[in-house]
Each structure stands twice: as structure tokens, then as C-alpha cells.
Amino acid sequence: MASITIRNLDDEVKARLRVRASANGRSMEEEARLALAEAVNREPAPVEGLGTAIHELFKSFGGVELKLPPREPMRDPPRFE
């Protein structure tokens, strides 16, 4: 098994780890091992775009069909003479 050293660990994180380990009846080292294993074994959250997220949020309300205006020829650009 490998071992690592974690430097510059925030005091608050260490204190919370100590409390969590105590509540679970484990050593801080064992609690840290389990927390790291749990964090790296999680399935990554699906990456979706903003449009997909908005669609998922509002799809239960039903959709709306919008009429697209007919395309027209482009206008001539303005002339600045």
C-alpha cells in the first residue's frame, strides 16, 4: 500500500476530520482514507450545457411551438459617406 503526506492542511479541515472520525469511532488516518476513497470512487456528474439544464428544468410544463418568420433577403449595409 502507498502512503501520502498532506501538507498545508487547513486547521478547520483537520478539526472537522477529527470530529468526524470520533463520531464514527475511527482514527483520523482511517477517516481520511475512507473520505478520499469515497471521493475518488464517485461517478462524475454528467456534463450538460446550459440549454439542456434549462430544458430539463422546464420540460414538465410542456413545450411551445414558435412560428419562425420567413427569411428575407439581406438588406444592403449602411453607407457612411
Structural overview:
The chain has 3 helices and no strands. It is an all-alpha fold.
Structural key phrases:
mainly alpha; 81 residues; single chain; 0% strand
Principal-axis shape: elongated
What is the number of E strands?
0
What's the average pLDDT? 91
Beta-strand content estimate = under 5%
Alpha carbon gyration radius: 28 Å
| Largest sheet data | none
Q: Span from first to last CA?
A: 78 Å
Number of alpha- plus pi-helical segments = 3
The poorly predicted ranges are: none
Overview in brief:
The protein is mainly α and 81 residues long.
Question: Which helices and strands, and how do they pair?
Answer:
Blueprint: H1 11-23, H2 28-41, H3 50-58
Helix pairs in contact: 1-2
